[in-house]
Write the structure tokens for this entry.
Amino acid sequence: EPEVTQTPSHQVTQMGQEVILRCVPISNHLYFYWYRQILGQKVEFLVSFYNNEISEKSEIFDDQFSVERPDGSNFTLKIRSTKLEDSAMYFCASSQDSALRNSPLHFGNGTRLTVT
Amino acid sequence: KQEVTQIPAALSVPEGENLVLNCSFTDSAIYNLQWFRQDPGKGLTSLLLIQSSQREQTSGRLNASLDKSSGRSTLYIAASQPGDSATYLCAVKEYGNKLVFGAGTILRVKS
């Protein structure tokens, strides 16, 4: 069964550094998402992406965050200048055509980001 | 603002028991509700998706119901097994693209 893959599985970075989290969504999916889960807290929506642009973002997704689909297969999340509170598990997800609003989201295994 | 609550927060049962996990949401304007399973340190695995027009969905030993007007869903697991031990998350899809998650129910099935 096709799956969403994320790399790296664990990333350690120093405060103030830039990080890029990478995802390969399922190949025939057109909607892409990033969610995060701070340890012990709920999974939170960050951003959705469709047709090469952001379709929705949360208040968490401020100017420090950006997303990109650089080559038609990868989907990346960049954090420009990491803060301690950015430490979390970051999940990438994808789903089929937006017209099928009831298509399920498929999640990757996540990247654990630790900011020291 | 949509709030999703799951009860109980944790549940420990002996193998073979049937069990019910509960999910409630404050705003009934949803497209669908999804139940996920999360194993420690892993991603989220979609178990069942119920559209807003549906009342229930079944997959194997799992049955999920939805009462949209009262803002409630239940996940019924029949004949529980140790391999069912995981965190079960409920999420609603609002008019837009985002899922709003509950905090989850941590299930432990003892052999």
About this structure: The mean pLDDT of chain B is 94.
